[in-house]
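Predict fold of NADH dehydrogenase [ubiquinone] 1 beta subcomplex subunit 9; 121 aa.
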Amino acid sequence: MSGATTVAYLARRAAQKEKVRILYGCALKDILNWAVHRHLFYQDSSDLREKFEANKHVEDLDTVDKMIAAGEATYNKWRHPDPYIRSALEFQYSGQQPHLMGDLSMRPMATGIASPNLNVF
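Predicted 3D structure, encoded as tokens:
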């Protein structure tokens, strides 16, 4: 392989690995939406991991692209119609900051009274 071909191969392979990583993370988070109990989540997440590990050895770029497309199609087909969305209060107690929420103390409520400061970190 020439230098340009090697660089192109490595760039495409890195992009594929990133797509697989994102797909795995999204599918894992979606399992939490379907699993009512933790023991169900653990079993389903283990099954998902086995599916990804079974194809870890595949090196052909075109085959990997087809597998990623099939995985994304399967994910979109079985995606939860009503995913769980964390509220701002849950972020307060978990120690994480809410994303894209801004400072809730500065937003007026429907009654025109300023809301209490929920961003206690």
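Residues 18 and 29 are 17 Å apart (CA to CA).
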